[in-house]
Amino acid sequence: MNTQLNGHTNISNGVLASPLAMKHVNGIHEVEVYSVAFNANLDPSKLTVTQTDTPKPLPEPSSLVFGQTMTDHMLVMSFDPETGWTVPVIQPYQPLQLDPASSCFQYCPNVFEGMKAYLGPDGEPRLFRPDLNMRRMELSVDRVALPPIDGHALLKLIKKLVIVDKRWIPSQSGYSLYIRPTIIGTRPALGVAASSHALLYVIMSPTGPYFPTGPKPVSLLAVHENVRSWPGGTGGFKLGLNYAPAFEPQRRAAEKGYMQILWLLGHEGERRITEAGQMNFFAVVKREDGDLDLVTPPLDGTILPGVTRNSVLALAASHSPLTPLPNITPSQRINTHEKPITMSDLTMWYSSGLLLEVFCVGTAVTVASVGRIGYEGKDMILADESRMALGVVAGAISEKIIAIQEGRFQWEGWSVPCKE
């Protein structure tokens, strides 16, 4: 018989033991395991679709602000420990109804993903490496002991939702439909325990450039007084609880004239760079032999394993006379490194003229060059923040990734059609 202990679920042949119940004894919450078994898998074949009778007018793409305009429909299903996942439903976009005691409000078992849909040359919607998003979501769900999901099944449902709201995908290059799959704990009780109930929903939003300044370089303020993540923590997972603690430091950085935080970890002299805002960090360093080193922090548990990060490393490593990146000499090699970067390293590269550019990547932003990094009262000036331009390497990678995302360039099956 399967059981769930200490917030960890044991699964066998797709059958899951029902999660923890709680009982209150002498003022102490104690764990009580019960063992009703059920099939935990989502079933895309049972999807029902109810389309809106009042579709909204499409906004002008130039007016879009990231995440503020939602499409007509959403995907919803819920999980109960006795019956498993409900029939998935695509329905008109609408508010959720939740019990005030739901776990998501009290203990933050909230997981989400960030994906995008693009229109291909044939006018059909495409997703960019969605299998990586689904795998990451499965791992994040497990990290906070939520009822498990089948990423393969969820992806089928997401494709259906994208097709239903296909008209919302902007046709301009560089624009897309942002997709936010979310799963939250909805156990209606205040006991400190893993949530035995969950709600899974997917909403979507048409989007253009993430930063209102467009492709101008961003500025970073390096801080060590606060940390985004720590060894053994949750920085390597896509969890809502990772974001709220960053808001106050971000506000202080903005007051000092910086757009994002450069998160540092460790003691003086060994302050390692982790992420920039919610983006992965890259540095381009000139080598003595004329080639380039592309360096990013390793996935040590404090770094989110970004889909764009993974793609940047693969495309940079593939640069050669046979598969060149645009506007980079085909014979110039780009050596990729996943290794710790300290502020001492960055300062040394900068002062010696070896630091050619810094950029950040993520699903929302794709690629953003860094123009300035503030650290201990001094600025490293890397690019003109007033210019609408990316660095040479950042620009080449951005151009290649967007061409793949939009289906204009085929590469390793990364661009996935939504049609069956």
TrEMBL record:
Secretion signal: which residues? none
Instruction: Name the reaction it catalyses.
Output: L-valine + 2-oxoglutarate = 3-methyl-2-oxobutanoate + L-glutamate; L-leucine + 2-oxoglutarate = 4-methyl-2-oxopentanoate + L-glutamate; L-isoleucine + 2-oxoglutarate = (S)-3-methyl-2-oxopentanoate + L-glutamate
Q: Which residues carry this modification: N6-(pyridoxal phosphate)lysine?
A: K238
Q: Name one Pfam family in it.
A: Aminotran_4
Enzyme class, spelled out: transferase
EC id? 2.6.1.42
Cofactor(s) needed, names only, are: pyridoxal 5'-phosphate
Q: Which GO terms describe its molecular function?
A: L-isoleucine-2-oxoglutarate transaminase activity; L-leucine-2-oxoglutarate transaminase activity; L-valine-2-oxoglutarate transaminase activity
Q: Which CDD domains match?
A: BCAT_beta_family
Biological process per Gene Ontology, one example term: L-valine biosynthetic process
Name the PROSITE patterns for this protein.
AA_TRANSFER_CLASS_4
Keyword list (alphabetical) reads:
Amino-acid biosynthesis, Aminotransferase, Branched-chain amino acid biosynthesis, Pyridoxal phosphate, Transferase
**May I have one GO cellular component term?**
mitochondrion
By sequence similarity, the record places it as follows:
Belongs to the class-IV pyridoxal-phosphate-dependent aminotransferase family.
> What is this protein's name?
Branched-chain-amino-acid aminotransferase
